[in-house]
Amino acid sequence: xxxxxxxxxxxxxxxxxxxxxxxxxxxxxxxxxxxxxxxxxxxxxxxxxxxxxxxxxxxxxxxxxxxxxxxxxxxxxxxxxxxxxxxxxxxxxxxxxxxxxxxxxxxxxxxxxxxxxxxxxxxxxxxxxxxxxxxxxxxxxxxxxxxxxxxxxxxxxxxxxxxxxxxxxxxxxxxxxxxxxxxxxxxxxxxxxxxxxxxxxxxxxxxxxxxxxxxxxxxxxxxxxxxxxxxxxxxxxxxxxxxxxxxxxxxxxxxxxx
Length: 258
Hints:
- There is one protein chain.
- By secondary structure, the protein is of the alpha/beta class.
- It has two domains: about 1-90 and about 170-190 and about 200-258, P-loop containing nucleotide triphosphate hydrolases (Rossmann fold, 3-Layer(aba) Sandwich), CATH 3.40.50; about 95-165.
- The protein has helices at about 55-60, 80-85, 105-115, 120-130, 135-140, 150-160, 180-195, 205-210, 235-255, and strands spanning about 15-25, 25-35, 40-45, 70-75, 75, 90, 165-170, 195-200, 215-220, 220-225.
- The protein has a six-stranded mixed beta sheet with strand order 6-7-8-3-9-10, with helices on both faces. Strands 2-1-4-5 form a four-stranded antiparallel beta sheet.
- Mean pLDDT is about 90; it is low at about 1-10 and about 250-258.
């Protein structure tokens, strides 16, 4: 998946980076990142805070400009086509921002219209909500009374109405109870089976093994290892991840002692 050959196996990567680098002054946030996520694939990026996961997502969204290299969405350079590339992606942050006084359906109608899809009937919007795992009764309630999991489902319904080809998910499981996390995992896998390209930034190793077709471990802005969760047990993945983090901790401690 890290290969920059986006046409391998006849499928072009929807999300791709080529030698992507981002610095903030003297701080290197991302260093030479090469990833490619094709339709029907999920890449989960694991790493401590500051590893570069959210920076990667923000570069795909066009919230940041790369210092060098490229972030591509459906073959287009985000820095050169920021508006066009946003049409193909959906972003679901840790906290989905919705209008609390509006119902789930009203929020969906509003955000779908913002994305240029203002011709949907109520029946079509309810279909998106149903696919996202919410019922009609819940969709007709004000969002102010929603749980975090329900808000995320409206976020996914918005992405479905937008007809997004790729999903960028930043810590989507944080704060969810086990039942809601399981529901989200089922839904994310359905999206992948439907052909979406999904990039997830998460700290949850065991959920990552359920969601990912590839797990990437990031440290200090670099992709240090890629793992196939189908061939590596979750316990082994945890050990590999902790070994990378332990190495980082030892280096920091040694620097502090010096």
